[in-house]
Batch of 2 targets.
Target 1
Amino acid sequence: MQDAAPGTTRPPGEELPGVWSIRVPFPDNPLGYTLVYALETTAGGPVLIDAGWDDPGSLAALEQGLEAIGSSISDVHGVLVTHHHPDHHGLAGRIRELSGCWVALHEADAKVVDLVRTAEREPWTKRYKALLELCGAPAEAIENAAAAIPSGAKPAVPDVLIEDGALMDVPGRTLRAVWTPGHSPGHTCFHLEDSGALLTGDHVLPGITPVVTVYDDHVVGTSDPLGDFLASLQKVSRLKTTRALPAHRAPFDDVAGRAAEITEHHVQRLAQIEGQLAVGPKTLWSITEGMEWNKGWERLDTFARHLALGEAGSHLRHLALTGRVRLSSTEPIEFSLA
């Protein structure tokens, strides 16, 4: 099957009866689009899974997609957001303005939204520069730290806080929330129990793996995002699923098989870090430089390097919390094998 153009929908029933995917453009990003799913309900309007990026072109694509299935933005009953990242949560507030619908998000991500809405950029940049210095970053990276902190519109505050295991307000369907922290602290998948399909957000994707970064800082702490993510992969693997409906790429079969592949990817990442530390202590920056990235470290822009540091940090955090590495120096912070 060929990919549809951004903003178009698949014919009704192409994913599942009463479930349509709408390709909402993700501007200036290699992913290209976010798949927003529209679930038909008996309430007179659809419930959306995710919203897409907050951009006029993205909104227009969503409007066109809804019109193609006989609906409209003004008809939307609710928006279930898998996680707070702007390519999923960005348009939620605008959809609410145009329809009067509710917006739902897990409490853990609602706290992140509150932080983003209230954080002042200058103190945040100052803190990040200090953190980069502790991580062993070069002077140029510290000087350009502000470019790693995205700016833009304030994300929408949710009306409903999603709880793990709760049935969602999707009249005529049986849709259960499955909390899957890791990619974000509140990431949630949705199990359409009347069909067996699992709306996976960014948790389980075909062909690519979601970034798993630290929730708080890049160096020390007690949270274990990677541990959360690996446990969440096991959690969805135990569900009786018939098909995965992800937020990027395309729907696929065998959630458990793909979850096992992603788990193995992170096992290999952990081994790479331990291999680096076998020759002696290293800073987080040095470890991150030495890891394998799909573009290569030298080709990553400032924001991508920020994500890479977070990913390396989550793996180091997991290794430390499981007793495989230890903190060997504090200024700058260095790690060594335990």
Target 2
Amino acid sequence: MSLQQEIIARFKVKPEIDVEQERELRVNYLKLYLQRAGATGYLIAISGGLDSAVAAGLCKQATDELSSETGQPYVTLALFQPYAEQSDIAHSYEVADAFQLSLRTETNIEEAVDEISLEVEHSFKAIQKSRHISHATKGNIKARTRMVMQYAIAQELNLLVVGTDHASEAITGFFTKWGDGAVDLEPLQSLNKRQVYQLGALIGVPTSVMEKTPTAGLWDGQTDENELGIKYSDINNYLEGKAIDPVAQEKLEKQYLRSEHKRSPIPGI
């Protein structure tokens, strides 16, 4: 078995999907998981990008159906987490409006992130390593700070935290371990980015969000493809079992092997 075949089997990506079937499968999974967990709903942080929009739409369908079927009040809480002024925050609210997410709140992470960053830089002085933290490190602080806030809210309201990772991110380890990679469940997990687009089109993600350039928003001007040096089209094709440019395949497989620690549980002896 080739490495490509091993990866496809691991992430359970299909070469093509029946989009309506995938929607129904994921909504039913969300309903069942919520009932088994004894929670009252889902918390989804809506970034303004496609992945969180699709996850939010699926969660809202699941909690609406569950409320109707059981007579119990299940909810989906939309959370917005800008760092200072978020230039595309309007897209986050547009998603919430599109899916009629009336239960919503906002936590601005700027002060918390900046305080943590300053303390880290201060600690360097004690070991004669005075320096400013990098964009990447501060980006990871943002991811972890967002998750601290998400879990604080979720715990108080008996909600489950929903992740937005999918196979095209998992293969590259493009998430912060125990930051945005630490959630209660991931309803998009076995889809690639192309398939997430297909699902988004089906459930009614706003066009403005569908057309955005993918970015994790770690710093101004950051985009997924520029940071990875790999196009999503190549990643999607690879996960669907298709042949891609050998240079792109080598880079992708190296990234997969190098980022294995992000996908693995905490190791022990």
